[in-house]
């Protein structure tokens, strides 16, 4: 696997800050051609760009249209890197079924999608419900697919409380004993996960894979028919 130079990492970061999709996808393509591990390009190159954008937005140095342009650039990079990550899980046995989504009222999708891609790359069957997903939609899809895990992402302090609603909807649907719940997203903490009765919290996508594996180990082995 090739190493990425600091210069390229900086260019990746800057392409996101500048909201430049063509540059971002070009840099992603060149990284893949050079044999770079896609996750390294994402985590060390493009994601720091998103963090810089978030900080500038919070300081009032960037505005909503800038943040949207940056998200577009991130999407362009991910359109190149996502299939490369998915290839890595193509012939693995199914590790478990995950229903994934971003909670009601929240349209942030980049982190949630990355979590889904990495879970799929590590053998999980992932059903991504997208963004702005109600608690009832999570529960109904979990029932339909007999899901092992429901994963709920939230990026806003105002929408993370809807993660609690998903736990409650699973209880109401009689699914809680058979379905593990994992939560994540920038404002979410381990303490919050415990408070709402979720089974685990992951700070990033690789940790989410480790958490999903450990949740599968905690699941009771089904009785033989
Ligand atoms: Co928004 N936004 N945004 N935004 N946005 C944040 C979250 C914010 C922190 C920016 C800031 O002020 N510094 C702030 C939230 C403040 C708060 O709640 N306290 C904010 C705000 C205020 C808003 C709006 C309200 C702005 C407005 O309209 N005035 C609005 C809300 C819209 C809505 O959802 N209803 C809004 C809109 C948008 C855009 C549409 C422009 C765009 C999203 C585009 C898209 O996703 N299609 C956007 C963006 C891009 C951001 C920032 C800059 C970047 C988010 C991102 O993609 N990060 C963000 C600032 C920030 O987070 N630093 C910000 C990269 C991604 C890889 O990381 O999503 O954290 P992240 O995911 C990580 C981990 O968190 C974890 O793993 C991922 C990968 O490592 N993880 C999980 C995530 N989900 C997980 C689930 C798991 C496990 C781990 O298990 C299930």
CATH superfamily of the largest domain: Cobalamin-binding domain
Number of strands: 5
Number of helices: 9
CATH class of the largest domain: Alpha Beta
CATH topology grouping of the largest domain: Rossmann fold
Query: Which stretches are low in confidence, meaning pLDDT under 50 for 5 or more residues running?
Result: none
Tell me, briefly, the overall form: globular
| Radius of gyration using CA atoms only | 18 Å
Measured as a percent range, the helix fraction is: 55-70%
Largest sheet, if any?
5 strands, parallel
CATH architecture of the largest domain: 3-Layer(aba) Sandwich
Question: How many domains?
Answer: 2
Associated small molecules: CO-5-methoxybenzimidazolylcobamide
Strand order of the largest sheet: 2-1-3-4-5
Strand fraction: 5-15%
Mean of residue pLDDT?
Answer: 94
The succession of helices and strands, N to C, reads HHHHEHEHEHEHEH
N-end to C-end Cα span: 46 Å
Class of secondary structure makeup: alpha/beta
